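Q: what sequence does this backbone want?
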């Protein structure tokens, strides 16, 4: 199973900025005199919608580089002003999409059930889905990690199709208190939370649950990526702030 090293560019970068960063990333990770893209890694970039095209162009014919979307609305098409549908994303070459990022749960008020409907819809339409889960600081302090992550996982995975191929689903464990704060969960916290996610995956999917990748996200940087990526049940990372710069993200990818 290759580790999935994902860059969430959130609401940053114009088309030109995205093009420059994507091209620089490809250059850094494919140069013959550099480390190149390690055999066991895949790169995924989730730009804002307006920058999908230049990133797609930069990644064209580059093995191991994938394009994804940060969001979509779970309907075929229709009167959903301001929204985007999966066919539009597939048309732009997206292979992956996020659901349940904490910024959408907490700022935009997305419920566990709505997140679950996106996972179901995206999978049915042919996207691979990354379901983000994670507890707030208050929830962790109150000893509610298992309850919160369990609830998010059960609702998020409620409508999985029969016989789902393991590479079509990824879980990103992202403690809310570590996102964009500079605080990173410690190794014991990450190992314990990822073991919990793994057990919930096995409970839901049997043996297939052992093959599904679990990413860690929350203030991953070049300085801590090497330690995080080798922990048990860490099959990749989801990176926000430190993915905006090609040099910094390439160091994370090769950590
Ligand atoms: C994220 O956006 O998913 C994230 C983990 O952000 P950051 O790396 O900035 O904490």
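A:
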């Amino acid at each position: 199973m290759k580790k999935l090293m994902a860059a969430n560019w959130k609401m940053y970068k114009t088309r030109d900025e995205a093009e420059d960063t994507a091209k620089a990333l490809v250059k850094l990770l494919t140069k013959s005199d550099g480390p190149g893209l390690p055999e066991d890694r895949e790169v995924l970039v989730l730009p804002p919608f307006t920058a999908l095209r230049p990133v797609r162009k930069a990644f064209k014919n580059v093995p191991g580089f994938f394009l994804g979307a940060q969001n979509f609305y779970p309907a075929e098409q229709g009167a959903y002003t301001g929204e985007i549908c999966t066919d539009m994303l597939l048309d732009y070459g997206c292979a992956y999409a996020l659901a349940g990022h904490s910024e959408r749960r907490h700022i935009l008020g997305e419920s566990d059930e709505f997140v679950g409907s996106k996972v179901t819809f995206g999978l049915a339409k042919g996207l691979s889905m990354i379901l983000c889960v994670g507890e707030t600081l208050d929830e962790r302090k109150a000893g509610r990690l298992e309850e919160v992550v369990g609830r998010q996982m059960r609702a998020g995975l409620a409508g999985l199709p029969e016989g789902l191929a393991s590479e079509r689903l990824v879980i990103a464990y992202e403690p809310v208190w570590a996102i964009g704060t500079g605080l990173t969960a410690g190794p014991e916290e990450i190992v314990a939370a990822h073991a919990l996610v793994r057990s919930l995956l096995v409970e839901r999917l049997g043996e297939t649950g052992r093959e599904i990748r679990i990413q860690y996200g929350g203030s991953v940087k070049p300085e801590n990526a090497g330690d995080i990526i080798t922990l048990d049940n860490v099959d990749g990372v989801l990176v926000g702030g430190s993915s905006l710069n090609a040099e910094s993200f390439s160091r994370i990818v090769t950590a």
